[in-house]
Amino acid sequence: MENGTFESGAFADGAFRHTPVLLREVLEALSVDPKGSYIDGTAGGGGHARAVLDRLSPEGRLLAIDRDPDAVAVLKARLLPDARVTVARGNYREMERIAAENGVASVDGVLLDIGVSSHQLDDAARGFSYHADAPLDMRMSREGLSAADIVNTFSKEEISDILFRYGEEKCARRIAEGIVKRRAAQPIATTLELADVVRESVPAAVRRAEGHPARRTFQALRIAVNGELDALSEGLDAALRLLKPGGRLAVITFHSLEDRIVKRKFLEWAEGCTCPKDFPVCVCGKKPKVNILYKRGLVPLEDELRENPRAHSARLRAAEKLPEGSSGQREKGA
Questions:
Q1: What stretches of 18-64 show up as alpha helix (H) in DSSP?
Q2: Distance from C-alpha of 9 to C-alpha of 170, rounded to nearest angstrom
């Protein structure tokens, strides 16, 4: 695919499914101004982007970004031609550069929907799933280090650290040992080969437990391959810098590691004066940068979970940028 067109044999537009998670809640959190400017930093199949676009007037603007070339092609097919929309390929951690290159200096809202997309999971050839056999890839951008590279070249200690840090895998050491032992005979090339190694490496009780024993291993490798946690931290900072005072940042996460980063970042931004309470005046000069909109974040309602089971672990957090020097206000309950 080149320049947003489909080459012969490429997947059809309809094959790239995307059910936008927490759509009503996202639109409420962004409080879309019809004449405003917005960035969807992880636009994927364009579900959220389309809903934002539908609320914009001819004066509004949307910059839709995704690192996956498949997603970019679909976004162009689904959203263009429309003078209000710009579609760009890139990592949302670089959204300031991407925005500047497309004439966007500041925005009224930014949306980040973190993690792997439904299309990436459903397309077995991408190597994200342990349910179908495919090359062990997991690269969202289709570039750089792959999961196979990590599994077959990293040391046992490095693999164990990745599985424990990014997958919170209790059996990380045993799985790493199993990987190193298997690859000594021949490289681990496919998803099902890796899933088989994990299954053989964990205790019988883990194999009998609910859920696939390779789930955390695949999550950890995907995060490591795509640098997801570093990208999230950098992307949040970039989003805050791009927001106008009063602008909104909405972030959807799907597991505790991501949510923890967002929660801590928001709390850091929302913190005001840190001087001892008995000081008569503030000497630290610290002012809050945002108001947190939902104290605990929002999770999908039962009707959404019935229609889209993949929304089960989703959580939405949102914040509003304060004018410089503002004293802020208390968090709203949710």
A1: 23-30, 47-53
A2: 43
164 & 102 share domain? no
* Helix (H) or strand (E) run with residue 96 in it: helix 95-101
Q: For residue 212, with 0-12 CB atoms within 10 Å meaning exposed, 13-18 middle and 19 or more buried, which class applies?
A: middle
Angle at 129 between CA 15 and CA 213, to 5 degrees: 150
* Predicted confidence (pLDDT) per residue in 62-115, tens digit: 999 999 999 999 999 999 999 999 999 999 999 999 999 999 999 999 999 998
- What is the pTM assigned to this prediction? 0.89
Strand ordering across the sheet containing 85-89: 85-89, 61-66, 37-40, 107-113, 243-253, 315-321, 290-292
- Note whether 221 and 314 are same-domain residues: no
Residue 39: strand pairing partners: 63, 110
**102 lies in a domain?**
yes
